[in-house]
C-alpha cells in the first residue's frame, strides 16, 4: 500500500495549488468519525464544511444512492424524473415558497438567485439593478458570487468584476436604510454568517431588512447554504426570525454529501424566467435528488430538529464554560444550534495552530477568518461526542 507521503507528493505535483491542505489522507467514515489511511480515528466537527448532516456511512443515504445509481444516474433536464419531482415538492412544502431550481453547488444556486432577481427587477425598470450584500459575507467563487461576497481579499486579481454590487455592514440597519432605494433589485444576506466568523442577526434586524425591502420593492435573497438544512435548529434558519425571503438558496447539507444546490422562490419571482432563460446539465439529476430525498425525509422531523437544538445548547454552554476558564484566550462564543463560533482573543496560539493540535489529538475542527474556531458538525452528534471535543479543546487551551 502507498504511504501517505507518496499520496501527498502526487497530489501536490498535480492538483491546482489553491488549497492549504492538512497533512492527513482521509479514507472512510462512520457516523461522526473519520479514519485516515493509517487507521487513525478522528471525531469530525467540520462535516466536510457543514455538508455531512447525517454523518458518514448513514445506511439509508448509502442505500438510496446505490439503488438510484443502479437504476439511472443522469438523464438531463429534458425529461422528468421521480426523485427530482419529489425533492422539489418537499422543498416547496418546507419553505412556504413556490418554485425550486436545482443546481450543483452553492455558488451556482446563488448565481441563479442573482440572475432571477435581476430579470424580475427589469420588469419594473431597466436601471433597477443594484444588489446589496454584507461585508464579511460569503456567497461563492463564480464571478458574480465572489463579487456578492463582501470580502475584498476574494476579489483581488479577478477584476473587472460584474457591476451593480454594493455592501453594508451586517446588523447595521441604518446603513442599509441609507443605501437601499427604488434602484435596488435585491438585498442578499446569509441568515447567519458562516465563513465570515459566525455572526447571528441581532434583535429584529432581519425583520427590519424585510420591511426595507418591501418599502423599496427590492427582493430579499437569503443564502442558507451553510445555516439551512436544520443546522440552526429550524429547517430554514429564517424560521427562527419570523420572516420569509423572496428567494432562499441551499446547497452544502442538502444531499448529505452529494453535490447539489437549489434556489427556491415565490411564484411572482418565478414568473420572471421563461423556458430557455436559465439551465443546467447536471443540476437536479436523479442521483443527487435521491440523496436529497433522504435528507428531506429526515432533517425536518421535529424530533431531529429538537435534537439539533438540544445538543447545540449543550455544546454552546460547554464552550461558554471554556471561555470562563480561559478568558484571556476566548473573548466570545457565538451561534445557534450546530453552527457555533469561538472568537479567539490573544496571540498565544493562532487559530490554525489550535486546529492542528486538535487534529493531532484526533479532532477535526475548523478555523475561519484566522481568529474564529468554527464548529459545524454532523447534525447527529451526541452530548458525549461534544464532551470528547471539549476535552481536547481544554487540553489545547491549557498548554
Ligand atoms: C459554502 C457557501 C457557499 C458556496 O458554496 P459552494 O458549494 O462552495 O459553491 C455560498 N454561500 C454560503 C453561505 C456558503 O457557506
Protein model, in words:
The protein is an alpha/beta fold and 399 residues long. It is 39% helix and 18% strand. The chain contains 14 helices and 15 strands. It has helices spanning 4-14, 47-50, 59-71, 82-95, 106-122, 143-148, 152-155, 173-179, 205-215, 267-270, 286-298, 302-325, 351-360, 383-398; strands spanning 26-30, 33-36, 41-44, 99-103, 130-134, 165-168, 184-190, 219-223, 247-250, 261-265, 330-336, 339-344, 363-364, 366-368, 372-375. The strands form three sheets. It has a seven-stranded mixed beta sheet with strand order 4-10-9-8-7-5-6, with helices on both faces. A four-stranded mixed beta sheet has the order 1-2-3-13. Helix 3 (59-71) packs antiparallel against helix 11 (286-298), helix 4 runs parallel beside helix 11 and helix 12 (302-325) packs parallel to helix 14 (383-398). It is globular. The mean pLDDT is 97.
Could you report the average pLDDT, rounded to the nearest whole number?
97
Radius of gyration: 21 Å
Question: What series of H and E elements makes up the topology?
Answer: HEEEHHHEHEHHEHEHEEEHHHEEHEEEH
Counted beta strands: 15
Tally of helical runs: 14
Helices, strands, pairings?
Layout: H1 4-14, E1 26-30, E2 33-36, E3 41-44, H2 47-50, H3 59-71, H4 82-95, E4 99-103, H5 106-122, E5 130-134, H6 143-148, H7 152-155, E6 165-168, H8 173-179, E7 184-190, H9 205-215, E8 219-223, E9 247-250, E10 261-265, H10 267-270, H11 286-298, H12 302-325, E11 330-336, E12 339-344, H13 351-360, E13 363-364, E14 366-368, E15 372-375, H14 383-398
Parallel strand pairs: 3-13, 5-6, 5-7, 7-8, 8-9
Antiparallel strand pairs: 1-2, 2-3, 4-10, 9-10, 11-12, 12-15, 14-15
Bound molecules: pyridoxal-5'-phosphate.
